[in-house]
Amino acid sequence: MRKESVHSDVTVVGGGLAGVCAAIAAARLGRTVALVHNRPVLGGNSSSEVRVWVCGATAHGVHRWARETGIMGELYLENQYRNPEGNPYYWDQVVLDAVLAEPNLRLFLNTDVRDITAEHGKRIESVTGWTMGAERLTTFTSPVFVDCTGDGLIGHLAGADHRIGRESRAEHGEEWAPPEPDRQLLGSTILFYTKDAGHPVKYVPPTFARNILDTPIPEHRLIRTGDNGCDYWWVEWGGQLDTVDDNERIRDELWSVIHGIWDHIKNSGRFDAGNLTLEWVGAVPGKREYRRFLGDHVLTQTEVMAQNPFDDRIAFGGWSVDLHPVEGMYAEEPGARQRYSDGVYHIPFRSIYSRNVGNLLFAGRNISATHIAFGSTRVMATCATLGEAAGTGAALCAALGVTPRELHGGQLALLQQTLLRQDASLMGVRNTDPDDLARAARVCASSTLTRLAVEPGPGTTTTPLPLDRDLAFVLPVDPRLDDVELLVDVHTGAELTIELWDTLRGENAVPARHLISCTVPVPEGKEQWVSAHLPWQPDEPRNAVVIVRADPRAHLHLVDQRRTGVLCLARKRAGEPGVDHDIPEEDDQAVAEWVARGMRRRSFCFRAGRTRAYDPDKTVGGYQRPFSGPQMWHAGERGEAWLRLDWDTPVEIGTVHLVLDDDVDEYLNNLHRHRTEFEVMPELVRDYRIEARTEDGGWTRVARETENRRRHRIHRFAPLRTTALRVVVEATNGAAEARIVALRAYA
């Protein structure tokens, strides 16, 4: 047995997506990082060992413009390109490659941390892990530690305050909390995959297979051939037990039911399953819940639903508050109870560091949140964004020699601006980076989209969509709206009622406050442009919703075009699923009433006049992702286009950051379930060059990129003095016009 010591600026324990993103974030900020993981592959519940889909703020398409950026966004895009079929082993490689790409990061797989040295409840000095197979005992020392273990073992051993189970309703005033506190949890799940062997395959069940006819499962849960993996998310158990102490018992029970389900499918005679065989059954229970640490703030259900805009926000979520019956798969009630906020909600920095262990941050399902709020924050893409925030905070703490609480108290702006510089998932916070030279520049472009419209071009075929339910579209209002024209068919004379609604919040894309109604008489006829007068000038740019009320005599025209910043929606019919999955909804809220099924990457034909929503100056000092509008420059013409910065006096530049449009409204491949048609997002700029103005008024190239498929690009070059800088877009990955979200320049 060997004994070793490893000293790093930051030690991250736990290699799920939260830990991976924490480690990468800290390493990219120049800190030395040890990432310690007790499994042979990274990715936690998303890995090939467990195979849970990666869900996040999009909530399977419920929330709009909500896909995560930053490191999680990079993983999404890379997986989309490498792994369009969702192979879980290829996903392992994507995650591992991202870690191995960081020279400041050392990875320790198969290393189980179970001992620590700490001033109990005060400060962690070191953690020690045993590497199986290598028979190596390694002690890791750091000034800062990040617990991404999920179960919160490191913080627990250090004496960090935490909770297990549900708080009482009186403690935080949460509507869904029970009258009295208890230790009920969400259970664990094991998944399985099947395949068609192309010939008859028998199945002899093991002796431990449970006869599911003796359980409530056949009556209360959906069993189908062809379903795989997370289609069986409801195979869940252990919420009445201790999901750590009883982990082995929980695994055995889940195995017995999986094999019982498969025996039922294969041998009951009720399914066409003769050629089907079991391809894979998980051996590691995918845990949902255990310890939740207590930070300086405990996030609550009320704050999630109200979308509280915390001053110290460092990430956002959007998954529903998604709670399951404690009996799991044996419950006679539905498998999930859900409630959505009207848009994404914010998570404060105070919820990702310990209130009593001074050098401990945490990320993942163990953050400082109530059981009810945790029902939303627990999903992996959200955990990953919290990991990036925790790793960023840890790196700054190590560099400045401060605790996370001190960082919050004295350097909060630095933390948030560092996250924005990394293109992290931060909503509604502007770029105020004092080092960004672009903020002091004048911005212009070769052309700009100034007219907000989607019109059928010559030879374009439109699709008449029956107005048999309310239809709507979201559009940016910047600076004002006057008239909106729609292309309609009317079979007999009709009066269309068209309304304008305010979304109230920059994060949201659902109607919240009624502004104006307009009734327009329309004669019989096809492909008529109908005008509605909807004057509105908000105090600041805002997303608005135009609703066309149902009228069975009319149709609106759809066209296969996508206008950035514009969304098409339809009111959900009674009994129709409100989102792109089968989990039942608890409430008929505004956000769940409107669906986009069948209208993604399509738009109603409309005209809405002039707009400043795509002006070049949106790329400097802005929000860096959709918020009260698209927040990007959009070229007004096809072909080569440029975006330019000018300074009155020369500046020295050695680094340029580009954030390119990857359509964060597109719900990307989430590994083992959803498929997206594009391997590379069409909106992404593919080929471009960066040029600086020379003393003689010419241009010299300082960087060039071809075949780009990433959103965030950083170009470093020998520092030079110049009065102008421009990005010349030569080609996109399919979109007709160029788009740039943000342009930053540094010495």
**How can the largest sheet be summarized?**
7 strands, antiparallel
Number of strands: 39
Residues in helices, as a percent range: 10-25%
* Number of helical elements: 13
The radius of gyration is 27 Å
Polypeptide structure, described:
- A hairpin with a 5-residue loop joins strand 36 (685-693) and strand 37.
- The two termini are 50 Å apart.
- The radius of gyration is 27 Å and the shape is globular.
- Helix content is 17%, strand content 32%.
- The chain has 747 residues and is an alpha+beta fold.
- Strands 20, 34, 35, 36, 37, 38 and 39 form a seven-stranded antiparallel β-sheet that branches. Strands 21, 22, 24, 27, 29, 32 and 33 form a seven-stranded antiparallel β-sheet that branches. It has a six-stranded antiparallel β-sheet with strand order 26-25-28-23-30-31.
Provide the fold topology:
Layout: E1 2-7, E2 10-13, H1 17-28, E3 33-36, H2 70-82, H3 88-100, E4 105-108, E5 111-119, E6 123-131, E7 136-141, E8 144-147, H4 153-157, E9 162-163, H5 169-172, E10 188-189, E11 192-196, H6 217-220, E12 236-237, H7 247-267, E13 276-281, E14 292-293, H8 301-306, E15 313-317, E16 321-323, E17 337-339, E18 345-348, E19 360-362, H9 371-377, H10 380-400, H11 404-410, H12 412-421, E20 442-445, E21 451-454, E22 463-466, E23 471-477, E24 481-490, E25 494-502, E26 513-522, E27 525-536, E28 542-548, E29 554-559, E30 567-571, H13 590-593, E31 594-595, E32 603-604, E33 606-610, E34 633-634, E35 641-660, E36 685-693, E37 699-705, E38 712-732, E39 739-746
Parallel strand pairs: 1-7, 2-3, 2-8, 3-4, 8-19
Antiparallel strand pairs: 5-6, 6-7, 9-14, 10-12, 11-13, 15-18, 16-17, 20-35, 21-33, 22-29, 23-28, 23-30, 24-27, 24-29, 24-33, 25-26, 25-28, 29-32, 30-31, 34-39, 35-38, 35-39, 36-37, 36-38
Helix pairs in contact: 1-10, 2-3
